[in-house]
Design a protein that fits this description.
301 residues; mainly beta; eight-stranded antiparallel beta sheet
């Protein structure tokens, strides 16, 4: 679908328009009285979000992010589907699945009475994706942009046998400084620590940061809160249908090796990812759907 087609069918006056962005990728640009966001049709990837009452974005995008066909973007809210992390048996398959690097198609848009803007996209299968995931299903991402950002990932099993999936929104949040924040809401939760030898531990108190952190917290649907003293705000992450939370910062050495963080970009972000991984992979019965929903909002500290 061309830009003209997209704007004719799904554009919403000043609230929603489709534009060509870096690398020739197509973006939905959403700007209403409550908030702004950009969403790349490749990967259904929300790259930025800022409520109008916030000076700083809530969703972080690297200044050094690379935009190219078939490549993931550093920052934003990548969609990890239909597996999280490495594939269970095929080492050659992409980490976190293929959904974040293939095209999605816009299926619906609406200007809501609340002043929010809604857009829905569906994953487009291709020959390569079917080779990696030969299971009939429909995958949709519903996004509502306003004072908060609401995201729903819906998987419908179109087959005649049960379907198991892993999934996550690998969301990067903008912060003042990684050494000055803490993450609340996971106290007492069991987690898998992936830094060094993989171990299982229990979280004691808030999560703070003084080095690389890569943890998968399991069996919790609690709301998480990022307390940011430098930016004087809380970011709230409220989820349903998601029983895992991944907390990640690469810290300096790993970020330098990745090449798209820049000299100190890692200090201005933290990932708090809502999903279903490890113990919490989801089994979807034939003919049924599973929805994972997350709402991101910010308030003064």
């Amino acid at each position: 679908m061309t830009l003209t087609d997209l704007n004719t069918r799904f554009g919403l006056s000043q609230q929603l328009k489709f534009v060509e962005g870096p690398g020739g990728l197509i973006f939905a640009e959403i700007d209403n009285a409550l908030g702004t966001a950009y969403l790349c049709l490749q990967g259904a990837h929300i790259t930025t979000f800022r409520p109008k009452d916030q000076a700083e974005p809530v969703i972080w995008l690297s200044d050094y992010a690379k935009f190219a066909s078939g490549k993931s973007i550093r920052g934003g809210a990548p969609v990890c589907w239909p597996w999280f992390g490495a594939h269970a048996t095929e080492s050659g398959f992409p980490g976190h699945g293929y959904a974040r690097t293939v095209m999605w198609e816009v299926t619906q848009s609406a200007a809501l009475a609340s002043g929010e803007t809604e857009i829905t996209l569906a994953l487009v299968e291709n020959e390569q994706s079917r080779a990696q995931w030969p299971h009939p299903c429909r995958v949709e991402l519903n996004v509502v942009v306003g004072r908060s950002l609401k995201v729903g990932l819906i998987t419908t099993n179109l087959g005649d046998t049960d379907l198991g999936i892993g999934e996550a929104l690998h969301t990067y949040f903008q912060i003042g400084d990684i050494a000055e924040i803490q993450v609340l809401g996971l106290e007492g939760c069991e987690y898998v620590d992936k830094v060094g030898p993989v171990t299982r531990r229990e979280q004691a108190g808030p999560i703070t940061f003084s080095g690389e952190v890569d943890r998968v917290y399991v069996n919790s649907e609690s709301t998480c809160v990022i307390e940011d003293r430098r930016l004087q705000r809380r970011i709230l992450i409220a989820k349903t249908g998601a029983r895992s939370t991944v907390v990640w910062t690469p810290w300096t050495e790993k970020a330098d090796k990745m090449g798209d963080f820049g000299p100190d970009g890692w200090r201005r972000m933290v990932c708090v990812e809502s999903g279903n991984a490890l113990d919490n992979v989801v089994l979807i019965p034939a003919g049924q759907s599973h929805t994972m929903s997350v709402e991101y909002s910010a308030q003064v500290l």
